[in-house]
Design goal:
The structure is a homodimer of 241-residue chains.
Chain A lengths: L10 H4 L3 H7 L4 E5 L4 E3 L7 E15 L5 E7 L19 E14 H10 L1 H27 L2 H16 L3 E3 L2 H8 L3 H13 L3 E4 L2 E4 L2 H7 L2 H14 L8
Antiparallel strand pairs in A: 1-5, 2-5, 3-4, 3-5, 6-8, 7-8
Helix pairs in contact in A: 3-4, 4-9, 5-8, 6-7
The first copy, chain A, binds a DNA duplex (30 and 30 nucleotides) through helix 7.
Chain lengths: 241, 241
DNA sequence: ACGCGTCTGTTCGATGTCGAACATAGCATG
DNA sequence: CATGCTATGTTCGACATCGAACAGACGCGT
């Protein structure tokens, strides 16, 4: 049951035929996603999946020594733990809120059953799986080949797209976790971007000042991912474009 | 049509019910995979998929500046460009032979059609998609957080598993492409591993001398990936174990 | 207002990796 | 068996990132 009122903006849901969407709607619950909240733990059982409706939810890989990196960002075009629909319900990554917002919660087993018998729903999920694959591959290469500055810009741009405002809460510490680096390295890079006039920041609040500057400094991965997204889900909804 | 005789060792095919396998067999052609050969190009159309029967085929991401990294390795448990079954037939990565061997070639459209109507076949593919997702995520994190030495050991172990011999052809240059680094860095690392007594190498031929040593020096990713593989495909066939 | 704990931002020496140049071995060709 | 070509392996200075310690700002309870 959708307990609060909020228009559906998730692109996967919007792409469904009315009949299919109507069958899912009564089974979904709208929830708020709070900044930094962990939605699912590695190796935990996945009971529910979440269509992102506002904000961003991240897939974060945590290594044995405790260090971590983001390996994928799920925005309005996606759903959490989509691979839990492949017959195994154990989570591969931590799933945590990167940019707060809202999401539509749905039972994994229900969605799984619907998927088995609804071809349109399957088409929709396949399109997203394809996107997720591509994004993972891009990030795997990006993490190896691109500098911290480039990746930092990429990350800020992606967040900005979903934040719906030029200022949003973001600590260096959190960015370090996402970029798989240390707080001190993030601070160094942030200073460079600040001096270049691209961003401002004070005590956990960052402000995007010059988006074009970030785009120039970012690696190609931001443009690649955006292009692929538009190719698969249509060029609508570029929130801050 | 299978033109040569060679027993099927691909784990995906072996896991199929006899009836399903019998339907696929006449549509598959056994081919040799030559070292370094490019099977599919980025952005190229995927006409055929290849079940790996011997050796390893790599997914390599090439960036705009020409640098590259491996983002996934496909062994006996897998099939190339599996995401091309998600409705889009454009390749996300370069697909190239890492360890020479053989593969069973099958038409993408044929496999796609079979998938739509054969539940067992779909189960099989889903299991592999799940594995591929996990491996991509692991590699994305590994590329960021682990040292060249650790990743080099991981890579050598994976190759060794599929090479079916302690010596196999491998140049520093090729390793650099795979690990997303420079030839000089690979040479440095190789020297360290050689002095530790783990490997020998001369003019493009590498020999694994002390596997246990490599396992100790490798990052956790080798063990993680192996464990996940055994969990999903059974602990059989550890070729060099 | 004070002290305390926590969160945030900065500095600096140590180090892994880069990248360009150099050095060497094998191979084909006449 | 000279010659040049290509593939392979090594060296070294430059530089981005690490990591540990230091410095500063805010919130909260009393």
């Amino acid at each position: 049951m959708v307990s609060e009122r909020e228009p559906i903006t998730n692109r996967l849901l919007l792409s469904l035929p009315p009949a299919t969407l109507a069958r899912l709607t009564p089974e979904m619950e709208l929830i708020r996603t709070e900044s930094g909240a962990v939605i699912d733990h590695v190796n935990g059982l996945i009971q529910h999946l979440y269509f992102v409706n506002r904000g961003i939810i991240s897939m974060v890989k945590v290594m044995r020594d405790g260090r971590s990196v983001e390996v994928g960002a799920i925005g309005l075009e996606g759903i959490t733990d989509s691979n839990a629909l492949f017959g195994v319900d154990v989570a591969i990554t931590e799933t945590m809120v990167q940019v707060p917002g809202s999401a539509l919660k749905i039972s994994r087993t229900f969605l799984s059953r619907e998927l088995e018998r609804d071809r349109d729903l399957r088409r929709m999920m396949e399109r997203y799986w394809r996107f997720a694959f591509g994004q993972l591959a891009q990030t795997a290469a990006c993490n190896r080949l691109h500098t911290l500055e480039e990746r930092c810009c990429r990350w800020l741009l992606t967040s900005h797209d979903s934040a719906l405002a030029d200022s949003f809460p973001l600590t260096h510490e959190f960015l370090a976790t996402m970029l798989g680096t240390t707080r001190s390295s993030v601070s160094l890079t942030a200073k460079v971007l600040h001096r270049a006039g691209y961003i401002d920041y004070v005590r956990g609040i960052i402000t995007i000042v010059d988006r074009a500057g970030l785009e120039e400094t970012s690696c190609e991965c931001y443009a690649e991912t955006t292009a692929e997204m538009n190719r698969l889900f249509g060029p609508e909804t570029q929130p801050s474009g």
